[in-house]
Structures are given as structure tokens and as C-alpha cells.
Amino acid sequence: MAAGVAAWLPFARAAAIGWMPVANCPMPLAPADKSKRQDELIVLNVSGRRFQTWRTTLERYPDTLLGSTEKEFFFNEDTKEYFFDRDPEVFRCVLNFYRTGKLHYPRYECISAYDDELAFYGILPEIIGDCCYEEYKDRKRENAERLMDDNDSENNQESMPSLSFRQTMWRAFENPHTSTLALVFYYVTGFFIAVSVITNVVETVPCGTVPGSKELPCGERYSVAFFCLDTACVMIFTVEYLLRLFAAPSRYRFIRSVMSIIDVVAIMPYYIGLVMTNNEDVSGAFVTLRVFRVFRIFKFSRHSQGLRILGYTLKSCASELGFLLFSLTMAIIIFATVMFYAEKGSSASKFTSIPASFWYTIVTMTTLGYGDMVPKTIAGKIFGSICSLSGVLVIALPVPVIVSNFSRIYHQNQRADKRRAQKKARLARIRVAKTGSSNAYLHSKRNGLLTEALELMGTPEEEHMGKTTSLIESQHHHLLHCLEKTTNHEFIDEQMFEQNCMESSMQNYPSTRSPSLSSHPGLTTTCCSRRSKKTTHLPNSNLPATRLRSMQELSTIHIQGSEQPSLTTSRSSLNLKADDGLRPNCKTSQITTAIISIPTPPALTPEGESRPAPASPGPNTNIPSIASNVVKVSAL
Amino acid sequence: MSGCSKRCKLGFVKFAQTIFKLITGTLSKDKIEDELEMTMVCHRPEGLEQLEAQTNFTKRELQVLYRGFKNECPSGVVNEETFKQIYAQFFPHGDASMYAHYLFHAFDTTQTGSVKFEDFVTALSILLRGTVHEKLRWTFNLYDINKDGYINKEEMMDIVKAIYDMMGKYTYPVLKEDTPRQHVDVFFQKMDKNKDGIVTLDEFLESCQEDDNIMRSLQLFQNVM
């Protein structure tokens, strides 16, 4: 029962009084109205615009968001209204659906935004009313086409990893811009197609007279040269065809494709000619076969997108064209018959039979008017003029169809190219955002540790260096920090990573143990001496300290451990809780200047990791990790 | 042979149909199939009061959670793909898909392939507001990939490898091939009391409760919401 009709139910029930006198049996009991609830007004606040409606209106459709208890999730206790942070314009349509039972689709609305809103409110789009359904479907289909295009091009761009030789070759053939070799091949074949076509044309041009005989076409005069050219072109085409055949992922499908048929037709006449030069009878047929050489020009369609679009257009309006062809044939037959019988009377008429009149009809309908056949009788002239007038109309009909199809497909193609460019830009943006966020983490790590170090040392100043991260960001950074702790590795950026790799490959000798940390120059170390060959030996680790030094450039916390002579690099100190180690007697000023590059001593500060499982003496725990109590500060 | 003749017949029929269409001029239908008939899987959660009773969240917190949930998944259920995408956004450095996979299967208690809001909120309630025991039990369930009640070394390897995958490539020090393996060895050394190669729930609970760091870190995310 339609929702709005429910309001008329009391009337229908009251009208049942008309049955009472007629009824034989007693009536069943009426259902009790358990909840004598007054219908209440509900306020729906959608992004600030308030809509009001009765509760029963919304409850007409109980399997949508507004009609079920799901809307309680959006109830605001303070203002006693339901707040939705969505688009108020589309909400208008949604609410009208509850009121009238018909869902309309506003034309100015974007189709995917509309779909999103419908999905949010739990309304299926199929119930859009008839008045707007066409439009909705059209727009949705356009959108789907566009998405399909995107997916197709995506699939073409994929399959980067590890292609076999055959697949690379196929890709090179299909898309010449993938590699220089493919491009070269593309242009070479294009050149040879052009050469072949021009040769075919020039062959037949009369080339000047050999004294004593009539004018010869060039083909016969320089037959050897033309034969060589033809051979060369056919060689190239054969090689290309065989390579394509080899590289095709599905050879059977490739053989059936149009382009391959064109290729075969282009090179076949040559081979047939080679085989059959001797036989006199067939040489006539052989000459005809040479006509097929002109099909080589269709090989250009691989090279020209416009040709492909044209071919695709014709294919797509094949049915319209076929219909028009059929009606044209009908008209030709009608007019030819009429002209034949009209001209039958006149003597020496050229209209000898109906098929002979076909020629006149076609020439007249297409407004060519060669004049080789003209009607002489009056009736013939009348019908002839009717024929030419109707011809104009009939011929003009297919043109807009083809043009509109062509323009649609052409624009689609252009749109696809534009979209591909947009997509590349979008992916680049996403990549930048990704690296941006990871860099943001590294940045904040540095700044955050610095601030914590300062807080630890009880220095009140310079507390808020870069403390402008939002709560969400700091929570996200804390999450990443926890991950670092879990795996006992740190995030660094690409350049540092590459530097480390280079250094590790350069210095692969076991480092010697440095007896005491006090031997290092302390905070006044310059960069050069930091890069000195003095390395400290870390148990079970091959980390040369220069790498650590470079890491220390980044990680500010290491300055804290710098003044700890007690923090030796012995294994026993690994589990040392760094509580006692974090009151360095370095001045504040030195720390503040050293955000980017800290003159740290070349010592490793393996603050003990007071952590569960991976903390025990595994070989890769000698990492200059952050002091545990600093972790405590940030974690709790 | 019969297949061939059938194909020929089909081809002939199609050819005849094309000719007929050409002659009579029936225009072709749209190529794109009408896929609009697919039904939307829509799920509505239970009432707010019910959820409030079942979990340790207040009404307001449930409302906030639901709004965020519905924003990403208007249909009311999360499937694994969406879950992985959402989770991957928090870890731009590495590949979070494997860990998200294990997480998803820990959330999806009924193994239906989709997580409804109730499942989501129940699990969150345990993780954020549950007792230590409940949290540890949930974590055990996460590690136990095949849900047989025991954690063996392969399962732990998978989990630890997934965690290491999230770090990405640019780490310091450079991630070596056997780092996860060593990590797992250490873990098993600690957890597996009777050295039988598998960790049961009791062993897990016991070992975790012995370790102060684990206990402390479990309290870490108390006030996430």
C-alpha cells in the first residue's frame, strides 16, 4: 500500500459501515491501538539548514536511515535535533521522497555525489520516479563508461614487473612510446608503407618514351628498380607480420583480427606473383591481384589515430548506414522501374532494361548528372525530376548520423587522453602527499624529541619549537613511533638511507673498540673530524660509527648521551636504564643551535631498551634508539 | 565435432540476425549492460541503547564512532578491501596490507567477510575499555591466524613479518632478511614456557602478565577516544 494513502485508512474503515447490515457473521475484533502516541515533529538539521517533518512521515520507509533507529546515532542531546553533516540540497530530494513517495533526480547535481548521498541514507536508486529515471540512467551510464575507460587504460599501464621477452615485444608493438626501439620500428614501418604506396602509384605513370616505341609506364621502363623496391617493402612487412605473430598473446585471435588480415592481403600478391610468373593463363589474374597491393594503405591505420576513429565510427553506425542503404536501394529500384517504362516508348532510348536504368537513377539521385543517359519523353522528364529532388533528401540523411557519431567518439578519445594526463597528475599528487606525510613524521620526530629533551632537562625556554602539530597529527606520530619501537628500527628518509647504504658498502671492516668515550673531542667536534676513521666497536654489530654519526645528525636525542662516560659500549650496558644518563651537562645553547646537525661525539649511545621481547640480546638491538624514559613521556 | 557445428550454427544465426537488423533498420541497443540492478547490501546496526549496554562506550562515543564508520562505508559494512585501504593511509612508509588482513580477520568474528558496525564496536570496546585479560585474549586471537587455539612459530612469523612490512624500505638500520625470524625466536623463548613449540592461551597470558613493559603498554591507548 502506498505510504501516503495510509492517512486515508480511517476513512476506509469508517466506510465499512456499509457492509455491516449485509454481513452474516460477527465481525472480528479491531486491533487495539497500543501506543497512543501523538505524532511529533522531528527537526532534522542538515549542515545548518533545518527541516521539519512528522515522525510518521519518516517511518513510512523503515528500511532507510531516517525511518529506522539508525538515526538515533545522529541525535544531538543538547539541541534535541538530528544533525547530519551532509549536503542540504540533496537532502531536499530525499525528504521529498518520504513525503510524496517519489524520488526525483535534480539535473544540476553530479551523479556520483547524488549516489553517495542515496547510499548514505540507505535509499536504493531504483525507486527514482519515471520522470527523472531516463536522465539518471543516462548520466549513470556516462559515468560508468568513463570509469571503464579509466580501468582499461589502467590495465594497459600496469604489468610493469618482469615481463617476458614476448610480452615486452607485444607491448612495444601496441604502444610505440614505451621504448626507443619501438619508436624506431614504428617510424621505419610507416616509412616503408608510404614508399610502397607511392611506388604503386608511380608505377603506372607514363614515363617518357624510349625512342622507337610508344610511351611506357614507369613500371615497365624501370621494372628492375621497382621490383627491388617492392621486394624490400614486402620483406619488411613479412618480418613485421611474423614478429607480431610471435609476440601476440593469443595467436588465434591475432590471426582473426582486422589488422592482421590487412597485413596478409598486402603481402600475399607478391608471393603469389613469385610463384606464378611462368604460367601464361594465370598471369592475367596475377595482374588483377596487384590491385590488392593498394590495401597496404590501410596499414597506416596503426599509425594514425584519426583513421582508427573513422573506422570505429563507421563500425558503430553500421546499423544506421545499413538501414539507409536499404531504403536507398528501394528508391533506386522504384525510380529505375518507373523510368524504364516511361522511356520505353521513345526510340533509341538508352534505357534498355531496368538494371540499365539503375545507373541513371543513381547518378541522378546523387545529383551527379553525367548526362550519358537522359530521358526524352515528357513523362520520363517528369519522373526524372522527381527522382533528383527526392535523391537530395535521401542522400542527405546519413550525413548527420555519421557526423554525430564521429564527433562523439572523437571527443571521447580526447577525453580519454585528457583523463590519462589528469590521472598521472593525480598519482603524482598522491605520491607527494604520501612522502609529505612520512616526512612530516620524521620532522616532528626531530622536533618532538628536541622538545622532550628540553623538558627533561628542565629548561623552560624554547619549549614550543615547532609544536604546532594538531592533535590528530601527534596521535598519528605516536602510532608510528610505537611501530618503530616494536620493530626496533627507525624510519629515515630516502637520502639518509642511500647514504647509509653507500657507507656500509664502503666500510665493511670490523671496527675497533674505542676504549673510552672521553677521548672524543666532545661538542666542539667539527664535521670533518666526525667523519674520521675512529670507529667504535659495538658488540655483535658491524655498524661503523660514521653511520651512527650521520644518524646522530638527525636524531637530536643523542646529544643527551654524549656526556655519559659511563655509557660504555659494552654489552652489559645495553639494558642500562638511561635514567641516570639524561642529565647531561651540556649547555642549552649548544643544543638549540643543533637541530639539523649536531656536533656529537662519535660514540654510540645505546640507551637500554626496557622493552619486552626484542630487547634481549639479539644482534640487532644495538641501535641508537631513543631513551626509554623519553618514550614514557610521550606515551603516557 | 558437435561443438564446432554448434558454433557454426550460432554464427550463422548471428549473421542472419545482423543482416535482418541491417535491412529493417532496428537500431542496436546500448552496449553498456544495465548493471544498475545490483542490490545494495545495506546493514543497519542495532539500537543505540542496545549497543551502549553491550559495550563499554557511552552514547556520545558510539555516535562519534558510528559517524566515522558510516562516512567511509555508507552501506553499513566494511569489506576487506576498504579496511585495507583505510588502514594503509596511516602507514605511508610501508605496506600495511598483510597486517590489515590479519586485523580484519580478528574483527570479523563470524568469518563472513564483512565487518558490521556491531563487530567493530565490540572489538573496539575490548581493546580500549576492556580488562587486561580481555585485551590479552583478543591479542592472542589476533595472533592465532587459523583460530585453532594455539600460536605456532609460522603464525608468529607471519604476524611479525607483516609488522615489519609496515616499516617500509627506508629504515635505520637496514632491515635484514632474518630480522623477523630472530624477533620471533626471542618472542618464543619468552612465551613458550614448556618449550613445546606452541604457545597456548594460558602460557601467553602468564608470560605477558609477568612482563611489566607489556602490562604498561596495554594501558597506553586507554584514552584514545
Structural notes for this entry:
- The complex is a heterodimer of chains A (636) and B (225).
- By secondary structure, chain A is mainly alpha-helical.
- Chain A has 24 helices and 7 strands.
- In chain A, helix 7 packs antiparallel against helix 9 and helix 19 packs antiparallel against helix 21.
- The longest helix of chain A has 59 residues, at 398-456.
- Chain A starts with 8 loop residues before the first helix and ends with a helix.
- Chain B is mainly alpha-helical.
- Chain B has 2 domains: 3-91 and 113-129, Recoverin, domain 1 (Orthogonal Bundle); 133-224, Recoverin, domain 1, CATH 1.10.238.10.
- In chain B, 59% of the residues lie in helices and 6% in strands.
- Chain B is built from 11 helices and 5 strands, in the order αααβααβααβαβαβαα.
- In chain B, the strands form 2 sheets. Chain B has a two-stranded antiparallel ribbon. Chain B has a two-stranded antiparallel sheet with strand order 3-5.
- In chain B, helix 7 crosses helix 10.
- Mean pLDDT of chain B is 82; it is low at 27-39.
- At the A-B interface, helix 4, helix 5, helix 14, helix 17 and helix 18 of A face helix 1, helix 3, strand 4, helix 9 and helix 11 of B.
Nearest-angstrom radius of gyration of chain A? 43 Å
Measure the end-to-end span of chain B.
69 Å
The CATH class name of the largest domain in chain B reads Mainly Alpha
Which spans of chain B of ≥5 residues are poorly predicted at pLDDT below 50? Answer: 27-39
- DSSP E strands of chain B, number: 5
User: Which architecture name of the largest domain in chain B does CATH use?
Assistant: Orthogonal Bundle
Structural domains of chain B: how many: 2
Mean pLDDT of chain A: 74
Overall, the morphology of chain B is extended
**Numbering strands along the chain, what is their spatial order in the largest sheet of chain B?**
1-2
Helix content range of chain B: 55-70%
Per DSSP, the total helix count of chain B is 11
Low-confidence stretches of chain A: 460-466, 510-636
Q: Kindly identify the CATH topology of the largest domain in chain B.
A: Recoverin, domain 1
The number of strands of chain A is 7
Oligomer: heterodimer
User: If strands are numbered along the chain, what order do they take across the biggest sheet of chain A?
Assistant: 2-1-4-3
Assign the structural class of chain B, choosing from mainly alpha, mainly beta, alpha/beta, alpha+beta, or little secondary structure: mainly alpha
Percentage of residues in DSSP E strands of chain B: 5-15%
GO molecular function (chain B): calcium ion binding; potassium channel activity
GO cellular component, one term (chain B): plasma membrane
Family (chain B): Belongs to the recoverin family.
Keywords (chain B): Calcium, Cell membrane, Ion channel, Ion transport, Membrane, Metal-binding, Potassium, Potassium channel, Potassium transport, Repeat, Transport, Voltage-gated channel
